[in-house]
Amino acid sequence: MAVGIFDSGLGGLTVHNAVSARLPDVPFVYYGDSAHAPYGVRDADDVYKLTTRAVERLWDEGCDLVILACNTASAAALRRMQETWIPTDKRVLGVFVPLIEALTERQWGDNSPPRQVGVQNVALFATPATVASRAFQRELAFRAIGVDVEAQACGGVVDAIEDGDFILAEAMVRSHVDALKRKMPNPEAAILGCTHYPLMAETFADALGDGVKVYSQANIVAESLADYLKRHPKMVGASQESKYLTTGDPQTVSSRATQFLKREIKFVSA
Asked: What architecture is the 97-217 domain classified under in CATH?
């Protein structure tokens, strides 16, 4: 039995780490498309083609359920995939909805009309493609009213993280937070809308200052997945082997993944 986790590169390892800890008996097959990273600067059609190719590869590995641990793919491709492409015996889930449910304090599957929630000013940090899609605002509008979302496209941060240049990544994060605060001086909450960004969570929090609640996706998605599998146990596929697949150079990707997670990670060619 296995569940697939897809990301454009290494950022989804933050989600993989959390779901593996939450569901230790479930094998996970991770697919990182490092050869084509970052997705955040690509157009929607390109993201869709790359994402569907990756999901098909995970289906080939026996993963009937695939988590898009990539906000850009979730924003730019998921709805189109769900409406026109995914067969009835497969499931592909994104990472936006669990985050919004946590932000708005709504239970999974709560389909009641949107209502006032506890926060009114929310900062969203995401890739340029995610910001351009307005997917976060669209999903939020189904669940909450009266929330002002100020989005900041964080160009260059993913590239720096993928290259292992955390000094540059920190400088970029602080610059993007400064730009956001010029538009929204006093956000109550901040969404790290890219699974690479938890690696810089402390920098985001420090730059935002006290009193801003920072929502990161890994643990939220892990709890949501545990709940989903409890209700849909048959969606754990037939494969029983955990593995890490990459379209990039396995040695280079393994080295950077090990650096990120502070434990040995060994990728093989996808």
From this structure: 3-Layer(aba) Sandwich (3.40)
